[in-house]
Write a structure and sequence with these properties.
The structure is a homodimer of 458-residue chains. Helices cover 38% and strands 21% of the residues of chain A. By secondary structure, chain A is of the alpha+beta class. Chain A folds into 4 domains: 4-91, Uridine Diphospho-n-acetylenolpyruvylglucosamine Reductase, domain 2 (2-Layer Sandwich), CATH 3.30.43; 94-212, Uridine Diphospho-n-acetylenolpyruvylglucosamine Reductase, domain 3, CATH 3.30.465; 216-321, Alpha-Beta Plaits (2-Layer Sandwich), CATH 3.30.70.2190; 329-419, Alpha-Beta Plaits (2-Layer Sandwich), CATH 3.30.70. In chain A, a hairpin with a 4-residue loop joins strand 5 and strand 6 (105-108). In chain A, helix 10 packs across helix 13. The longest helix of chain A has 20 residues, at 386-405. The first copy, chain A, is globular and about 65 Å long. Chain A starts with a helix and ends in a 16-residue tail after the last helix. Chains A and B meet through strand 9, helix 8, helix 9, helix 11 and helix 16 of A and strand 9, helix 8, helix 9, helix 11 and helix 16 of B.
């Protein structure tokens, strides 16, 4: 077996928490997207930072790759052990270590999922807002700089991770950040690790910024005759300074899928789904002003989700959109790609993408966190159909190129993983080489999630 | 002359914009704080990114230090050419290159000052909120991760710089970030350069996030019998979710100095100065709710600054606090130090610091951006009095240690510069060595602002 020396050495202290069974390896060789199975040589289940440090130290000595695994919900193959070696399953490091209500902070292990933290916070009056839809692990969300429906108001993981404990490639353990809300004390190491996709270090603890649960929440859906009117509504809403907590675009294809899969009776038109947070008075005011903007743009079918239950149903439907899309074409897999553009270019980006999807012949519903200029196309391809996969890949590539042409980025939130490395030079130019310099400085042996984000070979 | 080869080579294309006169060198050897004069060997005034790249490339070949100079308003000696070589004055790169109102972005050269940008934005309905008080250059503000009075609402430079153009230590030019509001495309290089104090690269262009000018602004001052009541008011305000745009603490010593220097008639007690931004309705609601919190904590002397002119007078007074403090002890210089702690520890940090200042015998007014847990002590020392300087340094050192003991950071916004490098290991442990690894990877010859932030010698 490859890397046998490293594995045996790790087994001496991890015991049966180092697993070489085919089934466990297969479970960690899967992904939520279109990437083929990639089996690690073994799966390790550490329970402490010290164990992670020891594992990484051994791997560094023997040149054995280590790829961290959170909840496996990545859409770009981040957690696949593309170079073999160890899949480091952080699922047993799933304790909430502290909730500091006065300072609005939580300290968690990386295996805690978003929903587990939400449950724990429910009674505190606080919340952790970053919401990528999937019940991702918070370690994975930090590693991929996740964002989602509430980012327009509360920011991404970049904005909501205050500090980290990280195991470096040589087994050293560092702490970044502090309990203070800001700092000017040296390089922003927290920011460097957030979004580094496990290639610079393994996150073993996170200090998160919490927010107050809003006193009042209002949510609504509304339909538009065309997507341009929906997008124009978003832009006008932003320009008027109306503070949205969520503003989601759902195209007519997705609305039709919702009706079919969820039994709703939405008009089969482009929709916006919005939510406002504030005091009773301010949330009402925001909703009123938004209603006026919608009316100005010919929006109709305005439906308020008045109760918490109705709102939950609304957002569950939005979150399950990917699964509903997959269900709409039996036997398919999804190539879901995301781009993010300056808000002034959003209509153009969506228009060109719609035309491209229509020309491809693939089903490709579009949804998006449009308040950020971010949208996704879920390209539904027949499993095993190489021609459709090639078509989808080419389309995703053109979307990314389009984002760059419009001054945006090849991914707003899904990250690079295995899917977008070939676009990095296009986006960053010499900056991509700089990222590789940083990678080589921090992980000279190249053992941490090899093959992702950067190209370290000359 | 040291570095003569490099200087002569630069002179061939910079001509009389490479200056070796004593007066110009002296001007760039000064600082706003207590650091002794440190003369560069020459001052360079580049006008384009290409010139900066050429200068840095030459310096790299000849091992000549390059220390960027913005407006010289740093309080920790960042811009002093501690290692000699070239002071790179960015003041002629002071053009606003684009204001993209629809995307709420501005593209500026690094020598544009905060107030110059504010003037340009006045008619657009947009604003750039980061406000450190001094009319700093935006390049310098990014390089030092500046923040200030409005950070409690709008964030620091970390949150408001979307992208950069940077000249690397070998003369290569990279662009970081994009025009999109978020990205998950690789390492956060923007975040790495923001706060790196010119030690990793020279910022030659910035894309800034703008915000809408608030529809309504209300501001007020109120006095408390003791600082504990003022701090408790801040904590309660945050916990109630009242959205402050500014919330500043000013101690009784500072209030007395304001009266003396500005002719105001403030009660000589601890004060809070606050500002609320929003729609007419929401700003009024916030102000009302804040008024209730103040009353609950025994606050009095509540004075609203109703007009824009009254507000400007209020904030000018706050911004000029440092100068007023200096004026209050003729012939003195200031050692102004800042720390930042979790909000729950703010009262403890202020209490211990007040006692320490009282015991030192030095005048030491305290002001602070208390909504962030950040406060400053301006220790006023007689020019040339070594004993007083030593006392002030020891006191600042204890403040930093106190911040760390309370879970905070040695500097919330003033940065490291020359003043706080000896505290970096204490705050970051092995993380400080990691910063040095990054520095060595990006600037192997150590020419960029040498002697600051990290220790690269083994």
């Amino acid at each position: 077996m490859p890397h046998e020396t490293a594995l045996s050495e790790i087994e001496t202290f991890l015991g049966d928490r180092l697993v070489r069974s085919k089934s466990d390896r297969a479970l960690h060789g899967q992904n939520e997207a279109w990437f083929p199975e990639m089996l690690p040589d073994a799966v390790a289940y550490p329970e402490t930072t010290a164990e992670v440090a020891r594992i990484v130290g051994i791997c560094a000595r023997h040149g054995c790759p280590v790829t961290p695994w959170g909840a496996g919900s990545s859409l770009e193959g981040h957690a696949l052990a593309a170079g073999g070696g160890i899949s480091l399953d952080m699922g047993r490091m799933n304790r909430i270590l502290a909730i500091r209500a006065e300072d609005m902070q939580a300290v968690v292990q990386p295996g805690v999922t978003r929903r587990a933290l939400a449950r724990e916070l429910r009674a505190t009056g606080l919340m952790f807002p970053v919401d990528p839809g999937a019940d991702a692990s918070l370690g994975g969300m930090a590693a991929t700089r996740a964002s989602g429906t509430t980012t327009v108001r509360y920011g991404t993981m970049r904005d909501n991770v205050m500090g980290l404990e990280v195991v470096l490639a040589d087994g050293r353990v560092i702490r970044t950040g502090s309990g203070a809300r800001k700092s000017a004390a040296g390089y922003d190491l927290t920011g460097l690790f957030v979004g580094s996709e496990g290639t610079l270090g393994i996150i073993t603890e996170l200090t998160l910024r919490l927010h107050g649960q809003p006193e009042a929440v209002t949510a609504a859906t509304c339909a538009f005759d065309d997507f341009e009117a929906a997008v124009a509504t978003v832009i006008a809403t932003i320009q008027m300074g109306i503070r949205m907590a969520r503003i989601e675009f759902v195209d007519e294809t997705t609305a039709a899928i919702f009706n079919r899969v969820n039994g709703t009776a939405l008009p089969e038109k482009p929709h916006l789904m919005v939510e406002f947070h504030g005091s009773a008075r301010s949330a009402e005011e925001d909703a009123e002003r938004f209603g006026e903007v919608v009316a100005d743009h010919g929006g109709a079918g305005f439906a308020w989700a008045g109760t918490a239950e109705e709102r939950n149903r609304l957002w569950r439907m939005r979150h399950d959109a990917y699964r509903a899309c997959l269900a709409s074409r039996p036997g398919c897999i999804g190539l879901v790609t995301d781009i993010c553009v300056p808000i002034s270019k959003l209509a153009e980006a969506v228009r060109e993408t719609r035309a491209d999807i229509a020309a491809s012949g693939l089903p490709g519903p579009i949804v998006g966190h449009v308040g950020d200029g971010n949208f996704h196309a879920a390209l539904l391809i027949e499993r095993g159909n190489a021609a459709e996969l090639a078509t989808a890949k080419a389309l995703a590539h053109r979307m990314a190129e389009r984002a760059l042409r419009l001054g945006g980025t090849i991914t707003g939130e899904h990250g690079i993983g295995l899917g977008k490395k070939d676009l990095m030079a296009l986006e960053h130019g010499a900056g991509w080489a700089l990222m590789a310099q940083i990678k080589r400085a921090l992980d000279p042996a190249g053992i941490l999630n090899p093959g992702k984000v950067v190209e370290t070979k000359a």
